[in-house]
Structures are given as structure tokens and as C-alpha cells.
Design goal:
heterotrimer, A alpha+beta, B alpha/beta, C alpha/beta, A: alpha+beta, Beta-Lactamase, Helix Hairpins, 3 domains, B: alpha/beta, Rossmann fold, 5 strands, about 45% helix, about 20% strand
């Protein structure tokens, strides 16, 4: 019965409209040309348009210019090739209100095929607030990283003090000796020149140590650059070896030459590896044997490993140790590994811990290479 | 006050107002297998030293120099007492001098109970088994 | 400064510190030899060396304290002055209790260091002379017959010949002969010297 089916259909439409209006998320329906057919209450509130004025317009009206031009072609491409850029996927995009202001939204699009007609339903969620809190979190994390870096520095201070003391001692001793020899007429100009040269060398040595520390302490922008992982490890070792020597913990270095480059924030990666080395010394005490290894697992993945012969990490704790505030030390903040994990994650990599063949722990940082992007 | 005596007569004398009123120091030393005698001031020390032939004087001293004066006093009375200094204020050179000039040991305050117990015990054992 | 003939053995992993120390020691007319590690010195070590050690506590490989323990096992008599760039009170106390004669922090004053080194060399030279004397006395004592040793003990104990003769049930004349041989073999002229030598035998 056409009558009853029409009735049923209009009843269904009304129920659908009511449902749409009750929804918290903004929902709109467009046809295959991108024209808006349905615009719910939440969408009206979100975009500042009335349903009646926006219906019939192209959906690109709701997008900032840079997307709006592309949208028609996306839609066309999907309809002809079936290639999905967004349909059924859901992603974060920018939207534009009636007043022209742009804001971040999460958009999920579904396709509704009723008979010949193809329609698309878009569900839009305002994520400005989430974005704001994410940004705050990021800032907080950066502050924490800074604090932790300074904390790591503090722990390394003893070793650094020792390291600077050596050239200072040499300088003072050369000077005392030279004066004594001069006063007893046992020092000629040639010899004095030699001693002064040695003193200058030692002063430069002290200056270099200070410069290295200053580099690390300087707060740098968290930008990533195309880097050679081994070069970053060389820099890291200059700092780590001071500390390692102080704790009599030799570092065996096994770096694979010619690794593919990667997008890395060198200061952050340095911090991760320094932190791992420090933890290993802390856990194993004086005499710990450390290994720092780099290699490429594949064309897409680089690996940095820090291995020690200390007590190792029990299997039950291998996930937990990366949690914030997890610490086995009384003076630890418990943030080191957690921050390391988030740094590595922000590089698109991962960090894990395993048992080393020697019974100690091996921390493995896996980072993506830049290979894929260069290929494109 | 009659001193408690063990069979060898070795005694631990804890000296100084601050030391005898510190419950952590007292409890650390009271747990050792030697009699412990508390001496509040240096003026009581001479009397206390007569009650036992030998042992350790564990003394709270303001700085190692004050401790050295005490060491000289001890030497004047008897050579069989070892001096262990507990001091809140010392630098490396002061500590080195104290040991060079005859203190048996020096422990920085605040003390760790286990450390104090071990060091006093090892001093007492060195008296009981010379060489 | 007195000439002791001892050598200052400098053991420090820092090349510049070693080099500058040897120059400072040279400025005070002291002979020195440098070693980059405890193991290097241990390899070089021979019993009977004379002098003193300027020893860094913290070094890669064997630490200064470990070298001290090793030298102790070898029966070495070299006095040790520890030098450290980063010491604390417990470390200093530990080093002193384990028999160091001094503990100096880097950077150090030249006067202080040289004075301590000089003291160490003198005390070592004195000990060495005492040991040589003791060895000589012991060797001489070994040549005495049991009877002569008995007479020597009595003489050292302050007894006169008559008492000794009664005690040992021999004639005074025999005591006199024994006594003369003891003095001759021990290389002394007076009873006082004999008493002094006897004190070495107790050691």
C-alpha cells in the first residue's frame, strides 16, 4: 500500500530528525554533489548557521579555504574510484563557523546508499577543548623534561666536578712548579714556554667540559631535524663518559656506521640515552659494564640499545617501569623513563626493556628512519 | 654509678650531652654485646674511665679539633681507650688530622644506626683480638 | 731538605696531573716516576723499593684503595699519600683507617703537598734503616750458640756476671768468655748498645 508506506517513511523521517536533534554531536547529511540536506540542532549551535539557511549549500562553506577547494575533488574521486580519503575513517580536520573563525573538529563520515541516491552522513565533534588540554599537557611535559634534564645534570654534577678538577689541578701544579724552578734559576725560556703551553691546553680542556654541560642545560626548541643517529650518540658519549668514568663504569660502544638518517630532536634523544645510561649505573653501581649499540633493524627502523650487566629488570616490571612516578630509588622522581617513553613516542618510535644475555637489562629504543619520506 | 662489666672488662663509654640524649645513638649502641655507660660531660669522664680498664669512648664533639683535645686527655689517663668521634662539623682535612693524631675513627652526624653499630663493634673487636 | 734517595711514585689516570706533579716534584729536587694506572704500578712493583706513593683514589680499573690492599698483601712498606679530586669525609676516614699516611684533595697547595711528601719519604727512610738494622741484628743473633744467647738474655736483663754464673751453674770466667763473644758477634762495645739491639729482636 503506497499510502501506508509513505506514512511509514515520513514517520521514519520524523523519528530520524528527532534523533538527530537530540544528538550531542553535530550531524549533517550531504548528497553526492556535496550539497547539505540535513543540519541538526547541535550543528546549528556549533557553526552558527540555521538549518534552513545552510541546507542546499555546498558543505565546503563549513570549511576553511584551504580545504574547501579540495573537498569537491575528494568527493568526486571517491565517487569515481572508490579511493577513501576520509569516508569511514574519521580524522581531525579544521572547520569554519559562520563568523569565519576556524576550530579543530573530529570528523567521521559514513556513506548511506538508499536506492540510486548516495548520501554521506558527517558527525562532527568540537575538539577545541581537548586540543587545549593536549597542548597544556605538552607544555607541562616540556617543563618536566627541562626539570628532569636539570635533575640528570645534578646527578652528573659530581662526576663533572671531578672532571673539571683535573685540569685545574694540573694548571695550579704547573704554575707552582714553574715558579719554584724560576726562583731557583732552573727554568729557561724554552722550558717555561713549554709549561705555559701545557697550562693553556689544560685551561681549554676545562672550558670544553663547561661548554658541553652548557649545551645540555640550554633549553632548546623541541624541533626535529634530519640527523645522523651516530653523531647524536657521539655527543651523548662525551657527556656520559664523564659520569661513567667517575663511577668506574666503562662504556663499550658498538655503533654501526652508515645508518640511514632520521627526523630526530637531538637534545631529546641525547636525554633519553643519557637517562638510560645513568639508570644503568645507578642500578649496577660502580664497576657496571655498559654497552651502547646502534644499528638498523630494517630500512625503516633504527635501534639504540643500552645494555648493562647489573641486576636486570624482573619480567613483571618491564611495562610498569615506564609508568610515571615508578621508581626503585628513594631519591628518584620516577619520571625519567616515563618521559623517555613519551619523547620516543613523539618521534614515532618505541622503547622497551629486555633481559640482556649477561643477565642485566637491555633497553631498546626503536626509531623510524626518514627513508619513507625521502622515497616519496 | 658502678659500671657494668663484661668478662673482659671492655666497655663502651658514650660521651657528651648531645650523644647521650640522642635515642638513635643510644639504641644503636645498647644493642651491642658490650656494656654501655653514658657520660654526660667530660668532667665525669675521669671517674668513668676508672671503672673499666679499656674500651671505646664514643664522643660527640663539636669539631675534630675539640676531639683531639679529648684524645690527649684520654692518653694522659690510659692508653687502652680508643676514641671514636661523632661530629656534625668536619671537613676532609680536619677528619684526616683527627685520624693522623690518634683518633681511632670518625663518623659524621647525623649518624646511620647500622654504620655506628658496625664501626663501634669493629673497634671493640680490635681491642679484644689485637692483631 | 734531606736526601733520602727515595722515589715518589705518582699513580694518576690523568696525564696532565701526572706530568705537572712530576714537574713540581722536580722543582723540589725529588725524583719521581709516573704511572697511568694502579695495574701499571703493580706490574712495575718490586719488593725493596724505597720511596712513597702519591696515589689517586678514583681511577678506571683498579682503584687506589685496591692497590693499597694489594701492596699490603705483597708486604710493601711504601707509605701512601692519597690524592683525590672528589673525596668526602667517609672516604678520607676509610683511607686513613686502612693505613694511608695522608689524604690530600685536588687542587692542593704546593707547599702542603711537598711537605707531606718529604715527611713520607723521611719516615720511610727511617723505617727502612730500622728494618735494615733489625735484619742485621737478627742475622748476628743467629750466629750465637744457645749458651751465648742465654748469657745475652741475662746480660740484657741487667744481671751481673756473678749472678749469671750462679744461675747457669757455670764459672764466672766462662760467663766472661761467653759475654765477650756475644759482644763481638753482635758488634757492640757496651751493654747499653746490646740492650738497644735486643729491642730489635722483640719486633
Amino acid at each position: 500500500m503506497p499510502n501506508s508506506s509513505e506514512h511509514a517513511s515520513s514517520f521514519a523521517e520524523a523519528r530520524f530528525a528527532a534523533l538527530l536533534d537530540a544528538a550531542v554531536d553535530a550531524i549533517l547529511v550531504i548528497d553526492s554533489n556535496g550539497q547539505i540536506e540535513t543540519f541538526n540542532r547541535a550543528a546549528e549551535r556549533l557553526f552558527g548557521y540555521q538549518s534552513v539557511e545552510i541546507c542546499g549549500q555546498n558543505v565546503s562553506t563549513l570549511m576553511p579555504d584551504k580545504y574547501s577547494h579540495a573537498h569537491d575533488s575528494y568527493l568526486q574521486r571517491y565517487l569515481t574510484t572508490g579511493e577513501r580519503r576520509i569516508i569511514g575513517i574519521g580524522r581531525e580536520v579544521s572547520a569554519m563557523r559562520r563568523d569565519g573563525s576556524v576550530f579543530p573538529v573530529e570528523l567521521s563520515v559514513g556513506e548511506v546508499a538508499t536506492g540510486e541516491k548516495r548520501r554521506f552522513v558527517g558527525i562532527i565533534r568540537d575538539i577545541s577543548e581537548r586540543r587545549a588540554s593536549e597542548q597544556e599537557l605538552r607544555q607541562q611535559q616540556e617543563r618536566l623534561e627541562h626539570v628532569t634534564r636539570l635533575g640528570t645534570l645534578g646527578e652528573m654534577a659530581a662526576g663533572i666536578a671531578h672532571e673539571i678538577n683535573q685540569p685545574l689541578t694540573a694548571i695550579a701544579t704547573y704554575a707552582h712548579a714553574a715558579r719554584r724552578l724560576l726562583s731557583s734559576d732552573r727554568m729557561d725560556a724554552v722550558r717555561l714556554d713549554d709549561v705555559l703551553g701545557k697550562m693553556a691546553t689544560q685551561a681549554e680542556r676545562a672550558g670544553q667540559i663547561i661548554e658541553r654541560i652548557r649545551d645540555l642545560a640550554r633549553r632548546q626548541s623541541p624541533s626535529q631535524e634530519l640527523c645522523d643517529l651516530n653523531a647524536i650518540m657521539d655527543e651523548t658519549l662525551k657527556l656520559a663518559e664523564v659520569d661513567a668514568r667517575y663511577h668506574d663504569a666503562p662504556i663499550v660502544v658498538e655503533m654501526t656506521p652508515g645508518l640511514p638518517h632520521a627526523w630526530l630532536n637531538s637534545v631529546q634523544i641525547q636525554q633519553v640515552v643519557l637517562n638510560l645510561l645513568r639508570n644503568a649505573i645507578e642500578a649496577g653501581g660502580a664497576g657496571t659494564k655498559l654497552k651502547l649499540r646502534t644499528y638498523a633493524r630494517s630500512k625503516e627502523e633504527l635501534v639504540v640499545e643500552v645494555e648493562d650487566n647489573g641486576p636486570g629488570v624482573p619480567e613483571s616490571l618491564r611495562t610498569e617501569i615506564f609508568n610515571p612516578f615508578f621508581t626503585t630509588r628513594t631519591d628518584g622522581t620516577g619520571m625519567g623513563l616515563s618521559i623517555s617513553r613519551s619523547i620516543v613516542a613523539s618521534h614515532g618510535g618505541r622503547i622497551e626493556v629486555d633481559a640482556a644475555p649477561t643477565g642485566g637489562a637491555v633497553f631498546r629504543v626503536t626509531l623510524p628512519t626518514a627513508l619513507g619520506e625521502i622515497d616519496e | 654509678m658502678p659500671a657494668p662489666q663484661d668478662e673482659n672488662g671492655f666497655t663502651i663509654l658514650l660521651l657528651g650531652q648531645e650523644a647521650v640524649s640522642d635515642p638513635r645513638i643510644c639504641s644503636a649502641l645498647a644493642g651491642l654485646p658490650w656494656p654501655l655507660q653514658l657520660v654526660e660531660s667530660e668532667s665525669d669522664l675521669r671517674i668513668a674511665l676508672r671503672t673499666a680498664p679499656a674500651g671505646c669512648v664514643v664522643a660527640h664533639v663539636e669539631d675534630p679539633r675539640a676531639g683531639l683535645r679529648l684524645h690527649a686527655d684520654l692518653r694522659a689517663i690510659s692508653g687502652d681507650w680508643l676514641l671514636i668521634m661523632l661530629t656534625p662539623r668536619t671537613g676532609i682535612q680536619a677528619a684526616v688530622s683527627a685520624l693522623k693524631f690518634g683518633a681511632h675513627d670518625l663518623i659524621e652526624m647525623p649518624i646511620v644506626e647500622r654504620v655506628l653499630r658496625e664501626r663501634v663493634a669493629s673497634a671493640m673487636r680490635s681491642l679484644e683480638n689485637p692483631q | 731538605m734531606s736526601e733520602t734517595g727515595g722515589i715518589v711514585f705518582v699513580v694518576d689516570d690523568d696525564e696532565a696531573v701526572r706530568d705537572s706533579l712530576s714537574l713540581l716534584l722536580e722543582s723540589a729536587s725529588l725524583q719521581s716516576q709516573c704511572f697511568a694506572s694502579a695495574d701499571e704500578f703493580a706490574e712495575h712493583y718490586q719488593g725493596g723499593m724505597s720511596g712513597c706513593l702519591l696515589l689517586d683514589i678514583r681511577m678506571p680499573g683498579k682503584s687506589g684503595l685496591e692497590l693499597r690492599d694489594w701492596l699490603d698483601q705483597q708486604g710493601a712498606q711504601l707509605p701512601i699519600i692519597f690524592i683525590t679530586g672528589h673525596g668526602d669525609v667517609p672516604m678520607a676516614v676509610d683511607a686513613m683507617k686502612r693505613g694511608a699516611i695522608d689524604f690530600i684533595q685536588k687542587p692542593f697547595s704546593d707547599d702542603e703537598l711537598l711537605q707531606r711528601v718529604q715527611q713520607a719519604l723521611e719516615s720511610e727512610a727511617g723505617d727502612r734503616a730500622d728494618r735494615a738494622e733489625a735484619d742485621r741484628v737478627r742475622a748476628n743473633f743467629e750466629t750465637l750458640t744457645p749458651r751465648e744467647r742465654e748469657v745475652m738474655q741475662q746480660v740484657v736483663a741487667g744481671r751481673v756476671n756473678k749472678v749469671i754464673a750462679l744461675d747457669m751453674d757455670i764459672s764466672q770466667r766462662t760467663v766472661e768468655i761467653h759475654r765477650a763473644r756475644v759482644m763481638h758477634k753482635m758488634g757492640v762495645r757496651s751493654v747499653a748498645d746490646l740492650v738497644r739491639l735486643a729491642s730489635f729482636l722483640d719486633k
